[in-house]
Write a structure and sequence with these properties.
globular; single chain; 5-stranded mixed beta sheet
């Protein structure tokens, strides 16, 4: 039985690619079941993290389709399925990311990266859908701007969210990349992210965690 004081899930971060993207391994405390969120590359490091944690990965989750978040998804799926004999679905992002996911090999070549393969998720996600990892449920928010199909995954009871590249500590996602739009991103943040509440802690795609209230008060892009 899990001690009542234990959190419902644990998160280990594996920085991947030269962009130091926060690939996350979430493990449900009670069962050891979990998921890998945004495996952008460096699959060997991700697999080593899974082994160290003893996590039984049941799915791969993507917040959006940029190379540093999705570039390793196809390889990781293949290798986990070979290890376990089980089907490991890829869930997310929003269907609007399809062009980015199809173009991952070309994107990798532009940045001098190797091994990236195109990805078609087993399940596209949209606003209002429910993402489950073990017995833990996440609300899905569609927050375009950094990319057209960026998603944020919110665990309301734990007051936690996987933010992708929508909002960072002291910054916001880039909008100078193909399909990016600054005004759309600011609207996503102000209309969908900030209303989640000042106490909500989030893990962005790069850099340290933060709280919504801290960003509301001090993030220069939100003033």
């Amino acid at each position: 039985m899990t001690d009542a004081a234990e959190p419902p899930f644990r998160i280990a971060i594996v920085p991947v690619t030269p962009f130091q993207q926060n690939c996350s391994i979430l493990t449900e405390t009670a069962t050891g079941v979990g998921a890998v969120i945004d495996p952008g590359g460096d699959v060997e490091s991700i697999l080593a993290g899974i082994d160290q944690l003893g996590c039984r990965v049941e799915k791969i989750v993507l917040t959006h389709g940029h190379i540093d978040h999705a570039g390793g998804a196809a390889e990781l799926k293949e290798r986990l399925e070979a290890r376990t004999g089980a089907t490991i679905p890829i869930e997310g992002p929003h269907r609007a990311e399809a062009p980015l996911l199809a173009g991952l090999p070309q994107s990798a070549a532009r940045f001098g990266l190797t091994g990236a393969r195109a990805v078609t998720p087993d399940r596209w996600l949209d606003e209002g859908d429910r993402l489950t990892i073990g017995g833990i449920g996440f609300d899905v928010l569609h927050c375009p701007g950094h990319s057209p199909g960026s998603l944020v995954y919110v665990q309301p009871e734990a007051r936690f969210a996987f933010m992708g590249d929508v909002l960072f500590r002291g910054s916001i996602g880039r909008t100078d990349l193909p399909f990016g739009d600054h005004a759309t991103l600011i609207r996503s943040i102000t209309e969908k992210v900030l209303p989640l509440g000042d106490d909500l802690v989030f893990l962005p795609g790069h850099g340290p965690m933060s709280r919504i209230g801290d960003e509301r008060a001090s993030n220069p892009f939100l003033r």
